[in-house]
TrEMBL record:
InterPro entries: Acyl_Trfase/lysoPLipase (IPR016035), NTE (IPR050301), Omp85-like_dom (IPR043864), PNPLA_dom (IPR002641). It comes from the Bacteria. The lineage of its organism: Bacteria, Pseudomonadati, Bacteroidota, Bacteroidia, Marinilabiliales. The keyword Lipid metabolism applies. This is PNPLA domain-containing protein. A motif (GXGXXG) lies at residues 43-48.
Length: 761
């Protein structure tokens, strides 16, 4: 009995001890589970760059978030941090990103196919036509370069099944314009998710995803605190850089202010409700900055850092309270090359899959790097068959194997393009263009351009792309011009010829990459030269009714253009070589006298040839000073007649029509010659964004025959040449290139004034 009592006593004691110990152990287990800290980043356009400065301070305080949610710019910064970019790496991105390019759809000229270069920077307005109606775009910017940049930063992690499996779980917000509901992105295409989250209505085109049409999450949920809580967050650190609620009527002074606030009003009111859920709320002072101030990114980043430092003690206490110390996440390993198991294309309407694949140069089974895919996308986009072209990668079953998916938006089949201009040599004009793609037949492009001007013109060209890689095209062309050719005496305009031109033909062109082109065509051209009465009254040699000619021939040409801009190049080279042979020249001179005019028509019906060469080299020093060196020459065979004449003079942006050659110091077409050689040297200093001070000096030698020209250059290399010089301003304006120059030469010491505004025809 005694033993039983003793045993019972021991059992009770053990139970009591266990009951006493168990709660303690249980409590220790619970408290060892650290509460989850979420970082919530709002949208705000360029002001969202302040998030980078905040991240620097969080790292110093010892806090690495367990969860990140973001909207718009907050989704960009947040997603990059979530996949493993450090705050220092994000700061480098902010410093080095070319925001001027990223926030446009403008093609980089060196990435545009040669047959499209002249059309890329030529029009002030480009309006799609759909179903015989003008169709305005859904947004000003498609985001081509921005998404390509994101794809580079996230390579090859463009698609992920679950954003919660990222090194730091991440969600972002957008709004479906169809249903009006907010959309929380937690899986799928990461690049497309953040692109949706930042699609500011009317600024960026919406993103189609399944049946949804997605725009910026800032419209309704600019500060996704509740989403972070739903992901399991216990503590919220919020950074808000969006519109403030404390605005007055004086702050709403422009249509832009009204439009921006109207779009974001729902998100502003919602954000105010979310503020109270934050344990630490950081609101940088960004009143001096706008959502478009990407050029002030470093200042905005510093403002974010300053605001976070004001909360540094709170952040430090939070880290110490929960036993936190900063440990950078391990960035997802990015292979140099991946294998493409297959290629898919989404968005085809009128183009076929083979056409797109031929332009890409990629095939299933290829082993590719990011650069390979990026170059393929740039080449395809440079053909201008695509208004937008992006890609995503999805892991396949095989190791390091991915499915490449191109998402394309075809360029509208019909576009109306307009460009007004003024030139004090050529007068006022409006270029009107219709561009038709894949309408006449698949893989075709037709350009129909009219110059409604004092000197009218018309050009039509139809290209048809053939071959496996679509680098070869055949084309038909027609062109017509009617304009006044000035006649000068001692630098003063004395009278005018009227020149009427019509030509057409058929040719072939071949593209070597994007920047080299070889071509040739067979043509017919008609010219009629008529002196005006004011010229005939002054110069008896102009006393004829008309000179007309019917020429049949062919031409060959080779072109290189690696420059970065059509009108304000800063680097690259240009080379143009053109040869034409007229094998049938039928001229007719109607005289008012019996005196012959052989200097105008040569030997009637004689064949002749011309050769023209022009080479430009551009180099920029110290980022702002651009040097240009140019050499050129033109040669006409004997008996070329009036159609073999080169017209020298002027400072046109695009002068090379009908053998018109730019020569500063002289008026447009002031000098006439059969043969010439020239060299030019110019400096342009960019004193403000798009504004240049420019100076140019050129020297030329001319002769009636190329033998005389060679003799002159070899026997008198520093002899009595024609010198011209100019200085002035150039401006890359919204209306197109603007040029204001004062020039002169060593022939008459008269000053010339030149003003042009807008894109040339």
């Amino acid at each position: 009995m005694k033993n039983l009592i003793l045993t019972t006593y021991h059992l009770v004691a053990i139970i009591i001890l266990l009951l006493a110990v168990f709660p303690v152990c249980s409590q220790e287990v619970n408290t060892s589970e650290k509460p989850k800290i979420a970082l919530v980043l709002s949208g705000g356009g360029a002001k969202g760059l302040a998030h980078i400065g905040v991240l620097k301070v969080l790292e110093e305080a010892g806090i690495r978030p367990d969860i990140i949610t973001g909207t718009s710019m907050g989704s960009i910064v947040g997603s990059l941090y979530a996949v493993g970019y450090t705050s220092d790496e994000l700061a480098q991105i902010n410093e080095n990103a070319n925001w001027d390019l990223l926030l446009t759809d403008k093609e980089r000229l060196r990435n545009v196919a040669m047959d499209e270069k002249q059309e890329t920077e030529k029009y002030l307005f480009e309006i799609p036509i759909k179903e015989k109606r003008v169709n305005l775009p859904a947004g000003l910017i498609n985001g081509q370069h921005l998404e390509a940049y994101f794809s580079e930063l996230f390579w090859p992690l463009t698609s992920h099944e679950d954003f919660n499996q990222l090194p730091i779980p991440f969600h972002c917000m957008s709004v479906d314009m169809i249903s009006g509901k907010t959309v929380e992105h937690s899986s799928g295409d990461l690049v497309r998710a953040i692109r949706s989250s930042m699609s500011i209505p009317t600024v960026f085109s919406p993103v189609r995803m399944d049946s949804m049409l997605l725009v910026d999450g800032g419209v309704a949920r600019n500060f996704p605190v509740q989403e972070a809580i739903n992901m399991g967050a216990d503590i919220i650190i919020g950074v808000y850089v969006g519109f403030q609620n404390d605005v007055t009527a004086e702050d709403m002074t422009s249509i832009t202010d009204i439009l921006q606030r109207s779009i974001a009003l729902g998100g502003i009111l919602d954000a105010k409700e979310q503020f109270s859920k934050c344990e630490v709320l950081i609101i940088p002072d960004l009143h001096d900055y706008s959502a478009a101030d990407f050029s002030k990114g470093l200042e905005i980043e510093q403002a974010g850092e300053d605001a976070a430092r004001e909360k540094f003690n709170d952040l430090k206490v939070l880290a110490q309270k929960h036993n936190r110390s900063f440990e950078p996440v391990t960035k997802i390993r990015q292979p140099d090359k991946i294998k493409l198991s297959s290629i898919e294309i989404e968005g085809l309407q009128y183009l076929n899959k083979n056409f797109v694949l031929s332009k890409s140069g990629l095939e299933g089974g290829d082993s590719v790097s990011y650069k390979d895919i990026d170059e393929a996308v740039e080449f395809m986009y440079g053909t201008r068959h695509f208004a937008k072209l992006t890609y995503s990668l999805k892991k396949d079953e095989a190791p390091n194997s991915y499915i490449l998916k191109f998402s394309i938006k075809e360029t509208p089949r019909a576009m109306l393009k307009l460009a007004p201009r003024y030139n004090n040599d050529l007068g006022v004009g409006i270029t009107t263009n219709f561009t038709l793609r894949n309408m006449i037949a698949p893989a075709t492009r037709m350009l129909i351009s009219f110059d409604i001007a004092e000197n009218p013109g018309m050009e039509i060209k139809l290209n048809r792309f053939v071959g496996k890689k679509q680098r070869l095209s055949d084309y038909f062309f027609i062109s017509s011009y009617s304009f006044k050719l000035p006649f000068y005496d001692g630098g003063k305009r004395s009278g005018n010829y009227k020149r009427d031109y019509f030509g057409g033909g058929y040719g072939l062109e071949y593209l070597f990459g994007l920047n080299h082109q070889l071509g040739g065509n067979a043509f017919y051209k008609y010219n009629r030269l008529t002196p005006r009465a004011d010229l005939q009254s002054i110069f008896p040699e102009a006393d004829f009714d008309y000179l007309k000619s019917h020429d049949w021939g062919y031409q060959l040409y080779y072109k290189i253009n690696t420059t970065d801009d059509l009108y304000f190049p800063k680097k690259g080279i240009k080379l143009d070589i053109g040869f034409q042979h007229i094998f049938s020249a039928n001229s007719d001179l109607n005289l008012n006298t019996t005196e012959p005019r052989d200097y105008l028509i040569g030997e009637v019906n004689d064949a002749y040839a011309t050769l023209t060469i022009d080479h430009n080299w551009y180099k920029t020093f110290a980022r702002k000073l651009t040097y240009n060196f140019e050499v050129g020459a033109g040669f006409s065979s004997e008996d070329a007649g009036a159609n073999g004449i080169y017209m020298l003079g002027g400072s046109q942006f695009d002068p090379n029509k009908l053998q018109s050659i730019d020569l500063t110091g002289f008026n447009y077409a002031e000098l006439y010659t059969y043969n010439y050689a020239l060299a030019k040297s110019s400096l342009s200093w960019e004193i403000a964004s798009g504004l240049y001070i420019t100076t140019k000096v050129n020297v030329a030698a001319t002769a009636d025959s190329y033998e005389d020209l060679f003799d002159h250059l070899t026997t008198q290399p520093f002899g009595n040449h024609i010198w011209g010089y100019s200085c002035g301003l150039k401006y890359d304006s919204l209306l197109g290139p603007v040029q204001l120059l004062i020039s002169g030469n060593n022939q008459d010491n008269e000053s010339r004034f030149h003003l042009s505004v807008g894109y040339p025809f």
